[in-house]
Design goal:
11 helices, alpha/beta, Metallo-beta-lactamase, Chain A, 5-stranded mixed β-sheet
Length: 295
Amino acid sequence: MKAGLAAVLALVAAPVLAQQQDFSNVEVKAEKVADGVYMLTGRGGNIGLSVGKSGTYVIDDQHAPLTGKILAAIRTVTPDPVRFVVNTHWHGDHTGGNENMGKAGALLVAHENVRRRMSGEQFSATFNSSTPPSPEAALPVVTFADAVTFHWNGDEIRVYHVPPAHTDGDSIVHFVKADVVHMGDLFFNGGYPFVDTSSGGRVDGLIAAAERALAGIGDKTRIIPGHGPLATKADLQAYRDALKTLRDRIAKLKGEGKSRDEVVAAKPTADHDAKWGTGFMKGDVFTGLVYDSLP
């Protein structure tokens, strides 16, 4: 399996693959984003952190073997225990620490489709692989259909679900007062996103989610992407624009009756690969997934 495909597979099957990975050299760091809000990086999806008088609030929790390092990084900011963990979607590099966090006393929260997918075996047609159900202790205990708001740490934290995009359970988290947005894997800053078609993912939904987020933020808003460095509104706009351009190209080729292999061979992303295709998701793989997700 090529390195890029292996990395994408690791996102989907992270609970299994985490047992085979070496996390000993992973360093989890906390970066201040705004007053009381931080981004934690390690290995896996970027973590959001809110601290203050109400208690510690976490968005996503990477892989289970990293829980100790994540909690240690949180303790460099606050001594308070984690009260809530919100999952932006079901993939294991964002939910792998759920069981540990839940057993330590955190309340797990996510869209209802996140719990549904974590509760049963998930099959990825892209990689012809299966992810087993998560243990009961890892499942969100509070779920919502459309949106939920936390009045927490002096802020209004709005968590809202978007139509199928990266998966069918994606949520955006908006810290209204702090002016910070956590996008989960709806936004890969500096790289092509993974369109998980087996989990209901759609490129049109990724574009719509970016546009919805852009409509609700200002030029000074800080954006925590699912992967990549801390971002600005301009970064998200560039990402949205690239997705629209490439979606339109691939849709045109598909509309002309070209097969998946023919569209991939046409390399419609070639002029974007130097900027967006240097991460784990390469242009050919992205093209195929976009093709699959289009009607």
